[in-house]
Amino acid sequence: MSERTLAIIKPDAVKKNAIGDIIACYEKAGLKPVAIRMMQFSKSTVEGFYAVHRARPFFDSLCAFMVSGPVVVLVLEGDNAIKKNRELMGATDPAKADAGTIRKAHGANIEFNAVHGSDSPETAKFESGYFFPGMDLIGS
Ligand code: ADP
Ligand code: MG
């Protein structure tokens, strides 16, 4: 079933010039970018995006990381895109990520882990609409 998911190439990966490699990983896996936006998050943008994590001990640190430099936000489309992208990303902690995953290749630690990916149809819808309002109206 074709579906859409929201991905973010985080500031650590942008700083190390891995944008091209990561987008190539998506494309090789059959995840087609249907929207791309490079941007610098503000504090309020990232706090709204990660609102589900507000109570977590790492929330402030995570928000500081995500505003530390530009990011690339993408909507990816393909068969089972949400699950496929989570597999392609690897475990949250790059040390535990399988070989061949994006986080294994580009992540440094459990916080600086190169990419974000939606984890369910509900979050994919919320997250895509957060950065690309009105996109639901275009196809799919
Ligand atoms: P994922 O990105 O794999 O879905 P979570 O949703 O649990 O992981 O966490 C969101 C982000 O918060 C992670 O990608 C990572 O950047 C950061 N994070 C998660 N757990 C920790 C932790 N224990 N310490 C610091 N940062 C963390
Ligand atoms: Mg998550």
Question: Any idea what the CATH superfamily is called?
Answer: Nucleoside diphosphate kinase-like domain
Low-pLDDT runs: none
What fraction, in percent, of the residue positions are helical? Answer: 25-40%
How many separate domains?
1
Order of helices and strands: EHHEHHEHHEH
Q: How are the strands of the biggest sheet laid out side by side?
A: 2-3-1-4
Query: Which structural class should the secondary elements be placed in?
Result: alpha+beta
Q: Count helical runs.
A: 7
The CATH architecture category equals: 2-Layer Sandwich
Using DSSP, what is the number of strands?
4
**What is the CATH level 1 assignment?**
Alpha Beta
Looking at CATH, which topology would you report?
Answer: Alpha-Beta Plaits
Roughly how many Å apart are the termini?
A: 11 Å
Tell me the radius of gyration: 14 Å
Question: Which cofactors or ions or other ligands sit in this model?
Answer: adenosine-5'-diphosphate, magnesium ion
Describe this structure in words.
The protein is α+β, with helices and mostly antiparallel strands and 140 residues long. It has a single domain (2-131), classed as 2-Layer Sandwich (Alpha-Beta Plaits). The chain has helices spanning 11-15, 19-28, 43-49, 59-66, 81-89, 102-106, 121-131, and strands at 2-9, 32-39, 71-79, 115-117. The protein has a four-stranded antiparallel β-sheet with strand order 2-3-1-4, sandwiched between helices. 33% of the residues are buried. The structure holds adenosine-5'-diphosphate and magnesium ion (MG).
